From TrEMBL:
Keyword Disulfide bond: no
Name this protein carries in UniProt: Glutamate racemase
Function according to Swiss-Prot or TrEMBL: Provides the (R)-glutamate required for cell wall biosynthesis.
Pathway assigned to this chain's UniProt record: Cell wall biogenesis; peptidoglycan biosynthesis
E.C. code: 5.1.1.3
Species name: Kroppenstedtia sanguinis
Catalyzed chemical reaction(s): L-glutamate = D-glutamate
Record field: transmembrane: none
Length: 280
């Protein structure tokens, strides 16, 4: 569905689950006057082990749902979905579409003086080599180590509680990165910043953690400013934002309110079968 977008239109943000809340948190901080519509596909999370075709279909299905409301920009706040579907989504909708991979790559290079960059992500993101390609396009001389960490998304989706069991899972997941003398580590999944303190403890103070949420939001601001779509006036009230989930709304609300520090409206949505001809 196509809408005429205006300064009062919303920013759509989608993710495989709660991980995209890291982007929402940054949008709330940097763009408090903007309305957010968020969709977390918690019923089908994680996306990482799924085929790229399946991720692409899920992403287009969510884009179609969010496009039922007037949007002025869309953020794919999921690295796996960005790797699998960004270009196709850009062809299907009539608003600017941002992914989280390119902004994260640029931020990592800025802090890596010796060019030693690590990337952790889901199996799908790492399999796609999207970060490595993005990094090497900017600087072909970079030393890049990529590692799939499939155990971390379920850890975050369960609440990301810091205890001995979660620290053990993290330690085992990150062990292959030790010895590479990394300067920066791209958190190549928007779920990971929600456990960044534990990751930082494991990697040590010499490794800068890169979350693409802040950089992506800066790009969003630049695009909205360019298009004359930055909203003026008062900050949005919590009830003006809308959060949708394909899974259990109470579980989603508990995690989301904890991370965003405000009451949220959460609605469960059962997505219809995708009719690709109607996207956009």
């Amino acid at each position: 569905m196509t809408h005429q977008h205006s300064v009062d239109s919303a920013i759509g943000i989608l993710d495989s689950g709660v991980g995209g809340l890291t982007v929402v948190r940054e949008v709330f901080r940097q763009l408090p006057k903007e309305k957010v519509l968020y969709f977390g596909d918690t019923l089908r999370c994680p996306y990482g082990p799924r085929s790229s075709d399946e991720v692409r279909r899920f992403t287009l299905e969510i884009v179609r749902y969010l496009s039922g409301s007037p949007l002025k920009a869309l953020v794919i706040a999921c690295n796996t979905a960005t790797a699998c579907a960004l270009d196709e989504v850009r062809h299907q909708v009539n608003v600017p579409v941002l992914g989280v991979i390119e902004p994260g790559a640029r931020a990592a290079i800025q802090v890596s003086r010796q060019g030693r960059v690590g990337v952790i992500g889901t199996e799908g993101t790492i399999r796609s080599s999207a970060y490595e390609r993005a990094l090497k396009r900017i600087d072909p001389r970079l030393y890049v180590v990529s590692l799939a960490c499939p155990a971390l998304v379920p850890l975050v989706e369960s609440g990301g509680v810091e205890n001995e069991e979660s620290r053990k899972i993290l330690r085992e997941s990150l062990a292959p990165l030790k010895g590479h003398r990394l300067e920066s580590l791209i958190l190549g999944c928007t779920h990971y910043p929600l456990i960044s303190s534990m990751i930082s403890q494991e990697m040590g103070p010499g490794v800068a953690l890169i979350s693409s949420a802040e950089e992506t939001t800066r790009e969003l601001i630049a695009i909205l400013r360019r298009d004359g779509l930055l909203r003026e006036g008062p900050s949005r009230r919590p009830e003006e934002h809308h959060f949708f989930t394909s899974g259990h709304p109470a579980s989603f609300r508990n995690i989301a309110e904890h991370w965003l520090h405000q009451p949220l409206q959460v609605e469960q949505v059962v997505l219809p079968a995708l009719d690709e001809s109607r996207v956009g």
